[in-house]
Amino acid sequence: MLQLDNIAVRFGGLNVLTDVNFAMETGEVVGLVGPNGAGKTTLFNVISGLVRPVSGRVVFDGRDMLRAPLYQRARAGLGRTFQIPQPMHELTVRENLRVAQRFGRGRVDEARIDEILDFLKLRPKAQADAASGLALSELKALEVGKALATEPKLLLLDEVLAGLETHGKRLFMQTLLALRERFGIGILIIEHDIETISNLCQRVCVLDFGKVIADGTPQAVFEDPQVIKSYTGGAAHA
Ligand SMILES: Nc1ncnc2c1ncn2[C@@H]1O[C@H](COP(=O)(O)OP(=O)(O)OP(=O)(O)O)[C@@H](O)[C@H]1O
């Protein structure tokens, strides 16, 4: 469904991503992990179209996406959230979903919006103002809802669980697990917490200094000496 070939990104003199090869099948749930600054968000930006790599290919559903603008990628089925929730603050929760839907689908479907509001337990807050009426967990849910409103085939989730306390994190994780069943979509999720990734994902890809250093089952990856070294601060620039 998604294929990245030899992706390279440079910011100034800094090689942020080097020769990244990665592929995902329909419906897979994959974790993207790595130390701070490893290039995880940059990779999301390459997939969603915010960053143009200096070389490499982005293929989604058999289509070369490298030159496609953001809205075309959204309409092809690439949805994403941002690390810091980015609702339109002056709009209500429902209006935020309508705007996202228009961007991603080109039309508004109130029945789908109701379905998303119910699924994310946001229906009681549908008329609430996104700026002042929402708790952090609800802002995170709205961030996921906006991505769902674009009807993605693949959802890129950037640290949606960060900042939530243990109970909130557990509840949100159940929601994410139910996402694939309910909407039949694949998920690529950036998350620092190893336990969360192990519970959520069938597969984990590890980035370190802009390179993929491991890709496999959570158990195999988190036992890999190179991954342990990278997580404990050792150099892994092979
Ligand atoms: N727009 C930019 N201009 C210059 N450098 C950037 C830019 N965006 C990111 N970087 C640098 O690229 C590197 C990778 O950043 P990125 O945000 O992709 O890492 P990350 O793995 O998502 O980190 P974190 O876990 O802290 O969110 C870092 O060194 C960062 O400082």
TrEMBL record:
GO terms for cellular component: plasma membrane. The keyword Nucleotide-binding applies. The keyword ATP-binding applies. Residues 2-234 form the ABC transporter domain. This is Amino acid/amide ABC transporter ATP-binding protein 1 (HAAT family). It comes from the Bacteria. CDD domains: ABC_Mj1267_LivG_branched (cd03219). Keywords: ATP-binding, Nucleotide-binding, Transport. It holds the Pfam family BCA_ABC_TP_C. GO terms for molecular function: ATP binding; ATP hydrolysis activity. InterPro entries: AAA+_ATPase (IPR003593), ABC_AA/LPS_Transport (IPR051120), ABC_transporter-like_ATP-bd (IPR003439), BCA_ABC_TP_C (IPR032823), P-loop_NTPase (IPR027417). SMART domains: AAA.
